[in-house]
Amino acid sequence: MTPSSAQRILESAPARALPGTWKLAGGRAITLRPVTDGIVRVAQGRVWATVDGPHGRRPDDSGDHVLETGRSLFVRAGQAVVLEAWTAGGASCFGWEPVFAPATGKRPLNLSVVLQPLADLRAAAGLALRATGQLGAGLARLAWDALHGGGRAQPARRPHGAAG
């Protein structure tokens, strides 16, 4: 069988996805936002892939890629990629293969177990400082009133927030 006849067989395959792949109808697009590094591999048809930036580190790095049957594209975790079927009059099929980092003897440092309590402590310290300032101002006013008010009757004060 010649390569061109094999390609014609793949292109004339039934309209359902190949095993282990997803079917993307012609003119349709899907956005992938992987949580792990991985590889998008085109199993049938042609796909236009647009990867979010940064781009332009190399002259040929625009973020847009046309992938034909058998071609693949590496995508980093958290990096969005838009896939659009770009096969004339037909669907494309693609697969996703996660790539896991090799396990090392050490676990990576998880700073969030320290950073969040530190942020909470900073917020609490700010509230405590404000409350201490308000307490000091209240005590100073009370002392001023006690020293300079003498025995004069003070006008009745309403509690904060009480109606007229």
Short structural summary:
Helices cover 28% and strands 25% of the residues. The protein has helices at residues 3-11, 112-148; strands at residues 22-24, 29-32, 38-44, 46-51, 64-68, 72-75, 81-85, 92-98.
List the helices and strands and how they pair.
Layout: H1 3-11, E1 22-24, E2 29-32, E3 38-44, E4 46-51, E5 64-68, E6 72-75, E7 81-85, E8 92-98, H2 112-148
Antiparallel strand pairs: 1-8, 2-7, 3-6, 3-8, 4-5, 4-7
Total strand segments: 8
The whole-angstrom Rg is 33 Å
Which structural class do you get from the secondary structure elements?
alpha+beta
Note the gap between the termini.
Answer: 96 Å
Q: Please state how the strands of the largest beta sheet are arranged side by side.
A: 1-8-3-6
Total number of helices: 2
Beta content comes to 25-35%
Biggest beta-sheet profile: 4 strands, antiparallel
Dominant shape? elongated
Could you explain how this protein is built, in words?
The chain is α+β, with helices and mostly antiparallel strands and 164 residues long. The chain is built from 2 helices and 8 strands, in the order H-E-E-E-E-E-E-E-E-H. The protein has a 4-stranded antiparallel β-sheet, with no helix packed on it. Strands 2-7-4-5 form a 4-stranded antiparallel β-sheet, with no helix packed on it. 11% of the residues are buried. The N terminus is likely disordered.
